[in-house]
Amino acid sequence: MKSKPTVIDLFCGCGGLSYGFIEAGFEVLLGIDHWKDAISTFESTHKNAKGIVANLFTETPKDISKLTGIKDIDVIIGGPPCQGFSIAGKRIIDDERNQLYKSFVSFVKYYQPKVFLMENVPNIVSMGKGIVKDSIIKDFEKLGYTVVYKVLLASDYGVPQNRRRAFFVGTKNNKEFVFPEPTTENPISAKEAISDLSENSVKDGSKYKTEPKSEYQKLIRGKSDGIYNHEITIHSEQTTSIISLVPDGGNYKDLPEELRKTRNVNIAWTRLNSKKPSFTIDTGHRHHFHYKYNRVPTVRESARIQSFPDTFIFLGSKTSQYKQVGNAVPPILAEVLAKEIKKYI
């Protein structure tokens, strides 16, 4: 008998979602993504899993099964990009970009896992007045699954970030999955997440200079032997002087009139609020700044805000690392969902 339920992660990126499943006691066998950098990070952080660089636009489940020898799987997870949902009247037009979503469906059809979990942007639920959501549910119901969905807020589950994501969960045997209740009433603040990390860059593997300053920092350091991915961005003198005028938790509205338009996006010149969870971490667009220091958060600070443990080391260029972090599902949220899914297997 295999001791742990098995998982395949499609469109896995660096593996935030599947890392949460590992922490919840699953065995992740395989991660597939078309981006080589993300797969390098995935393989180095998911010790027993195989990472494959493949385009799910063209690769079929049969191809992948042949290549990996994986015939049987308990859970399929992943976040297929869904920008292909063009809507006309009450139906989805067959846009070729839907192929990636259809690929996810085809893997579920081929492997017939006991449970699947599909993650996406929150507005997938309201797109086309619910047409997209209804189509997704119908596609999986045809395969014999009972499907539920919910938009969850990561900060309700111990992640120091107000990130909203939609999750669809399908189960077999007419059992309906029940989403977990929030695990915390006191959301973790940005300061609790990153206040022990220094203003300046540190060399990969450097020892921590201070004791953890919060329970969250204690948890996130775990068994890490040091700090990685904490290389700061050097901004121009103008950027540094402008951001220095914005208070903790402030934004462009705190600037003098003549400086407000220096960046033409409404999220520009926003500082983290030290007393609240962070806003959604993006893939490194550089409009969001540290609550105290006059710079953008480092990759490690961003990873902390996404709830990656300090032992999770990102590979590739700094730009690539930011993108890997920003695209991920927060592992702590994934772990809460995974523990709940375990009850249905």
UniProtKB/TrEMBL annotation:
Molecular-function annotations in GO: DNA (cytosine-5-)-methyltransferase activity; DNA binding
The keyword Transferase belongs to this UniProt entry's keyword annotation: yes
Top EC class for this record: transferase
UniProt xrefs under InterPro entries: C5-Methyltransferase, C5_DNA_meth_AS, C5_MeTfrase, C5_meth_CS, SAM-dependent_MTases_sf
Active site location: 82
Record family assignment: Belongs to the class I-like SAM-binding methyltransferase superfamily. C5-methyltransferase family.
E.C. number(s) listed in UniProt: 2.1.1.37
Name of the featured protein: Cytosine-specific methyltransferase
Catalytic activity: a 2'-deoxycytidine in DNA + S-adenosyl-L-methionine = a 5-methyl-2'-deoxycytidine in DNA + S-adenosyl-L-homocysteine + H(+)
Keyword terms of this UniProt record: Methyltransferase, Restriction system, S-adenosyl-L-methionine, Transferase
One matching Pfam family: DNA_methylase
GO biological process: DNA restriction-modification system; methylation; negative regulation of gene expression via chromosomal CpG island methylation
NCBIfam families for this protein: dcm
